Amino acid sequence: MHSQLAPGVTQIATSKRDNAFLVDGDDGLTLVDVGWSKAPGVLLHTVAALGHKPSDIRRVVLTHAHPDHVQGAAELRRHTDAHILIHDADRAWLEAGRVPTQGRSGAVGRFIDHLPKLHWTPTTADGTFTDGDTVEGSDGLRVIHTPGHSPGHIVLMHEPSRTILMGDAAFNRGKFAIGPAALSADPDLRPGSLARIPQNLNAVGFAHGAPLTGSEVHTFQEFLQQFRTES
Ligand SMILES: [Zn+2]
Ligand SMILES: [Zn+2]
User: Fold this and answer.
1) What band does 229 get if pLDDT is binned at 50, 70 and 90?
2) pLDDT digits (tens, 9 = 90+) for 17-73
3) Which of 90, 184, 198, 199 has the fewest Cβ atoms within 10 Å of its own Cβ atom?
4) How far apart are CA 85 and CA 94, in angstroms?
5) How many domains does the chain have?
6) Nearby residues for ligand 1 (ion, Cβ within 5 Å)
7) Ligand 2 mean position to 33 CA, how many Å?
């Protein structure tokens, strides 16, 4: 299932719980996150339904190296030749094929990372980001480094439509949340990261949860406000 979130930004449900995003740019398509191992089939089917070829996906931007965002990356690369890009601080995880033991702050997180089904094919990054970069060819997709959930977590701001793609920096589960601390690398960094999200947004996309447009965006900005005053 897919829907247009904003001009140039399409949300694609890669499973019942997970979303990826397709951004139309001056050099083809940029895919934001891949999903689990079965997601590439869904993504390629959707890209075809939208009238594109697999090779139109020129690059894949990963919000962070957790299995539900990167597991399908190696398979997608085989079909598209897309460049795979990630923040410098999550690169080693992507290339190792799993979250390392020190990658989660709590025992529950460390336990799940031992399960083979949460591992992925080690995947080489073609390039890395730092805070403030604009993704080349994306027509204005800006990288905002939001460490905490993982060291190299990024949120992406689509400047032309003022749409923010939140990755796992926040979740929309009926109410907004920052997720369990035990599954985060450094939970204490999360409030300061959320305080860095720009205001005056027009739309919000979540990796997990329904997107926001119109007046709903305002309630999310109010949620973010608490982190601005804390930090
Ligand atoms: Zn995550
Ligand atoms: Zn996730």
Assistant:
1) confident
2) 999 999 999 999 999 999 999 999 999 999 999 999 999 999 999 999 999 999 999
3) 199
4) 10
5) 1
6) 66, 168
7) 9
